[in-house]
Amino acid sequence: MAKVESKTTLAKSDLPDVLREMLLIRRFEEKVEERFRAGELPGFLHVTIGEEACAVGVCRALEDGDVIASTHRAHGHTLAKGTHPNEVMAELYGKQEGCSHGYGGSMHLYDVERGNLGANAVIGGGLPQITGAALAFQMRGESRVAVAFFGDGATNIGTFHEALNMAQLWKVPAVFVLEDNHWAESTPESQHSPIRDLSDRAKAFGMKAIKVDGQDVEAVYKATRQALDYARSGKGPVYLHLDTLRFSGHYIGDPQVYRPKDEAKKLRETRDPIELLRAKLSMPDSEFEGMDAEVTEIVEASVEFAKNGTDPAPEDALKNVYA
Fold it and tell me: What is the residue-level pLDDT of the chain in tens, covering all 323 positions?
């Protein structure tokens, strides 16, 4: 496997491109929400608005050959891992040109060629998958790491405990990335977990834990590099706790009666990861607007690509069925 030069921190020259990538994810999901509400997209839709620094910070730190498994909230991870917006949008429209050839939709985005082993609608479903992939890398003597994304609600699922227990027992090269937005669908963390710091979950397995601000893309990148280097060196898996925020509901159309009406608005005003990085860069309005126009054009083009895509044949529904 080819390897990239190991960098423990993001270079200042990289930050505008990092901002552009986060903004692309934001504009992509805003467009997806618009088209979903217009009735053009089937199924359910879960957006990652507010959590872009997690996806970009983690995926930018990966090396060639590293793999990920995502969640039902997968658009950001998939785009950050390198799948073209055209392929993601086509998948949401159920077209053969989609990254899962129209079979998966929003909650089942796959791109194995780019190291994405897939999103999973089952809570915690990717965790044992990643433990298995990491075990394979270990047994083959490959310098690769497997990374699982999951939310705070998944820390109460049996597969979470089973996967982390086996990963630590076998010292496999895995990184378990908790995107802790403090909501398990509509249940606040205080009502589903007896502990207030979910980093403590790692203690049960004797696993190394790292916790950082998930709204700070530089901090996410740096922590991910530390976790990857630790896992790749053969010391065992790492539990990476990203403290993040979900600006939208659990799904598009969620009335969010479980939290104050103005909470998301206030969070956007103070903890938006895109605005935080833009402020750090002191980027002029004209430069930001130019970047915004560029990514918006890419997103609009992806919608046209998807609409002009190929609908699967009805009989295709019976392909790849094994039971």
Answer: 434 445 789 999 999 999 999 999 999 999 999 999 999 999 999 999 999 999 999 999 999 999 999 999 999 999 999 999 999 999 999 999 999 999 999 999 999 999 999 999 999 999 999 999 999 999 999 999 999 999 999 999 999 999 999 999 999 999 999 999 999 999 999 999 999 999 999 999 999 999 999 999 999 999 999 999 999 999 999 999 999 999 999 999 999 999 998 998 899 999 999 999 999 999 999 999 999 999 999 999 999 999 999 999 999 988 888 87
Residue 27 covered by a domain = yes
Residue 188 lies in a domain: yes
At 102, which CATH number?
3.40.50.970
Q: What pTM did the predictor assign? A: 0.95
Q: Does 269 map to a domain?
A: yes
Question: Is 313 contained in some domain?
Answer: no
In b/e form, how buried is each residue of 191-223, taking b as 16+ CB within 10 angstroms?
eebeeeebbebbeebebbbbbbbbbbbbbbbbb
Angle at 130 between CA 124 and CA 135, to 5 degrees: 140
Domain limits for position 153: 12-307
